[in-house]
Known about the structure:
homodimer, Arc Repressor Mutant, subunit A, Dna Ligase, domain 1, DNA-binding
Amino acid sequence: MNSLKQMDRGALSDALDHSGQRTTPQRETVFSVLLDQRDHPTADEVYARTKSRMPTISIATVYNCLETLVSCGLVKQVNIEREPTRYCPNLSPHAHFHCRETGRVYDVPVPSGMMQELAGVLPGEYEADSVELVFRGHLAKGKTK
Amino acid sequence: MNSLKQMDRGALSDALDHSGQRTTPQRETVFSVLLDQRDHPTADEVYARTKSRMPTISIATVYNCLETLVSCGLVKQVNIEREPTRYCPNLSPHAHFHCRETGRVYDVPVPSGMMQELAGVLPGEYEADSVELVFRGHLAKGKTK
DNA sequence: ACATAGTTTAGAATTATTCTAAATCAAATT
DNA sequence: AATTTGATTTAGAATAATTCTAAACTATGT
């Protein structure tokens, strides 16, 4: 048993159906892991967390599931420097803040309109379908969030 | 002999001096390779180009030199998805456009003020020292640039 | 029930990058 | 000028995230 809420389970099977892929226990569990702890885990971290709910799952399957979730639009990959890819189920437009000290990644909500405005700086010949905005720095005194 | 202009040679040794590192023929040659063809090459590509000017250089040295140039602020790393790191000697504030079709990366000038404005969306507890903006998509009909 | 196609799995393979340790080089000092 | 010292270069080994491979499994449609 995974901890997907009815709503999320629905969103998952809709999205999978829509892209011609099956809803499987592995995919549900991986998705629930991402939704339950929204700290931008790496594939390895997702693997560890998923394993505690589904001990027989393999790392290859975790990679497969993550790729599937990305391909059907439910999850985004976050690439920070040369570090392992992180996964993020936050679909609303947002940026990321990467703390150099702790290595942690935080979501930063971006006012609607800002993304539009950003796209506006692109010369006409470029047609962008995604915008990635990453800040890097550190958190003010003591704030660990 | 590498093809560094007097100005760039000066900037290089100043920056290296300033960070307590030596000016070497390898570093000069790698830097000149980056300045001569500004197409965001990977380390492997830099290696191939440098080799034609300095056949004895090793790939490890190319990595070392690139790291050195980044550390003294003359070059920026550009990380696009899971692809190999690319290197960029453009120090003016700019974004990148990554063409999904060709894989090429283009510099996109960003109006001064835009970067400031971006930093403005960050809640107070975040202190950013760098902002990375990457667009992904494709070039309009036929435009290969 | 059977065929088909999609999915999972363990382990091997890949690949960009980093590490290691020896050789080389260059500046500073005797 | 020789010597010491520390930085740099180098080839090759090691690392680590990710992808690939091929066999086993599962679900679905006929």
